[in-house]
Fold:
Amino acid sequence: MTYSSTLYHHLKAARDINSPVIIQFSNGGAAFYAGKGISNDGQRAAVLGAVAGAHHVRMMAEHYGVPVVLHSDHCAKKLLPWFDGMLDADEEYFKVRTICDNPGPGIRIRIRGGGGESTGPVEKYE
Structure:
């Protein structure tokens, strides 16, 4: 996802056909979402853009009444700082919320790696 208008069209279509939807953030799309005014040294802009986009998607999906799965594009080994930054932000997000806050699904499965290279096991969080 690079534009909010793209998100709204997908959420509306999913709502209209009563279907969940998958929204993808690529590394480049996430950096674009952060804007050109933020340096991407160390994948900083890509992490910030992906996190900001995830918060935006979460908020809007709730108001559209649509279940959304966020998907990061396949991550080449050179982009692991981006992926790790997203995982860190995700952990922080769920750490500060309680079950009463309805943070989302109770089980999250993440695969760290991609780009044809095995970088680690599947991690399951409950």
